[in-house]
Amino acid sequence: MRLKTYTVHNVTQAIPMIKRDLGEDALILNTKKVKIGGFLGFFQKERLEVIAAVETIASEKKDRIETIHTESESIKENEVSVLDETENPLVQKDENLDELLNELKSLKQFMFQAIDEDRLPETLKALRKKLLSQGVTDEIQSELLGKLMLVLNEHPNYTEEKIHALARKEIIKLINAHKKRPSRRKVDIICFIGPTGVGKTTTIAKIAADYLLNEEKKVGLITSDTYRIAAVEQLKTYAGILNMPIRVVESSADLKAAMDDLSDCDIILMDTAGRNYQQQQYIDDLKEMLSEKMKIQINLVLSLTAKYEDMKKIIDNFETIVMDQLILTKKDETSSSGAILNLIYDYSIPIRYIANGQNVPDDILTVTPELIANFVLGEDENV
Ligand code: GDP
């Protein structure tokens, strides 16, 4: 990210400078009135300090902070000064890009919090309220509102509808910028992990039915969820209805044998025990089970009814297991969808499906950026 501070007469004066220096994607993070010049505190002039930023590609290692004044005590009107990068203590941390990015993240958050609610244009207040009610993080709000403030500065007459449409576009852009493309590699087995009760087994049945009915694939099922008799029975019931072979496994040797048994299947889906994800033993058991040399796609299943902080804890707890995709369930039980956007922004793990009900096989949606934008903006509530 590049960050620049301009001291100008008004925002209109700063906009062409921001565009010239930081490009079209730049956003205004904050504005505040400052007093400059004068003598012994007298004859000071009031100016506006505008802080603008633009994301840059991390690998370019271009991150830096520059300060530009169009007017100050020692600088004449419209003269521009750029701080030498080596003078800037933040720039010296360029070696440690992560640390620098974290600092900028908190700075961005701090600046967002400093945006005076009363100074937010009316057209953006409703949007901010919506994002807040959906549980979208401050950081994402700051990015979206900052971009829209920049647009509104140029087009103050834009209506709330127009701003809403632009917000939708920006959300889609944000998702596309943060989401990793799902891997297309061929896998031997698709494995579903996650806390107990989130809907893993139900979701597996929905996905299995989709492969069978819509893609005409031969699907095999495996479950290692032997901790609950009911869980095995539940998957067996679905296997019976869908006429699919099923194997129950308790060790990596069992798993190898089951894979051999199901070798004529096009796709194998595996349910796992949903024990307490906070128990290291659960993670270790999973790793041990999946240690066979096979191409595994790991799907972490999380319920949207959980608090975002708890979802983060779960993902962080699984950090030693490489996750390929996320599946979110129980969308029908919550009206707040911000976590979907937050997860993409914070973790960049592709979200493949959103389950929105208990009905097998119907209550599952394939995720697109447009669908997420609709959810976050409170549209398609009935989906
Ligand atoms: P598991 O322990 O993770 O395998 O969870 P289950 O598949 O057994 O599901 C636990 C409960 O959540 C069951 O009552 C399911 O019917 C219910 N469930 C699963 N997915 C959804 C969903 O998307 N929406 C709602 N409302 N309930 C769901």
CATH class of the largest domain: Alpha Beta
Architecture of the largest domain in CATH?
A: 3-Layer(aba) Sandwich
Name the CATH superfamily classification of the largest domain: P-loop containing nucleotide triphosphate hydrolases
Put simply, the count of helices is 12
Shape: elongated
Q: What small-molecule ligands were found?
A: guanosine-5'-diphosphate
Give the beta-strand count. 12
Averaged pLDDT: 79
CATH topology of the largest domain: Rossmann fold
Taking the sheet with the most strands, its summary is: 8 strands, mixed
- The whole-angstrom Rg is 26 Å
Distance between the termini: 37 Å
The percentage of residues in β strands lies in 15-25%
* Class from helix and strand fractions: alpha/beta
Amount of helix: 40-55%
Order of helices and strands: EHEEEHHHHEHEHEHEHEHEHEEH
Strand order of the largest sheet: 7-6-8-5-9-10-11-12
Can you tell me the residue ranges where pLDDT is under 50 for at least 5 consecutive residues?
A: 38-43, 58-94
Q: What is the domain total for the residues?
A: 4
